[in-house]
Amino acid sequence: MSLATELDALTRIAGVRGALIVSPDDGLVIEESLMEGIDGRAVAALVASLAGRMRGLTLALDHPPPVLLHLEAAAGGILAAFAPSGLLVIAVTTAGVNAGQVRLELLDAAERAA
């Protein structure tokens, strides 16, 4: 499957406003499928920074690295999954989205994005 196909599967979920595949080292967008008004570069930079910090924290605590990050706010959320290749697969959601469904699809997409 292509990276664009992986993102299309995510964006078909009700309440998902966009999806990205990002390099965690520098926050560069590799592939994106976003609704108008979403700044993909800003999302990529934020999530890459947070993902790096979380990996560093878990390493310092001698815990396994995170598999999924979920940030939630009043207007929506951001979920990010770590692909085995190291890439980040990200979904930008509205409030009230079925987060469980997004998590499952995000983890599947991350596995296939390897």
Question: What does this 3D model show about the protein?
Answer:
With 114 residues, the chain is α+β, with helices and mostly antiparallel strands. The protein has a single domain, classed as 2-Layer Sandwich (Beta-Lactamase), CATH 3.30.450. Helix 1 packs antiparallel against helix 3. The longest helix has 21 residues. The model has no long low-confidence stretch (mean pLDDT 92).
What is this structure's SSE topology?
Layout: H1 3-11, E1 16-22, E2 29-34, H2 40-60, E3 68-73, E4 76-82, E5 88-94, H3 99-112
Antiparallel strand pairs: 1-2, 1-5, 3-4, 4-5
Question: Which tags fit this structure?
Answer:
114 residues, Beta-Lactamase, 29% strand
Give me a quick take on this structure:
With 114 residues, the chain is of the alpha+beta class. The protein is built from 3 helices and 5 strands.
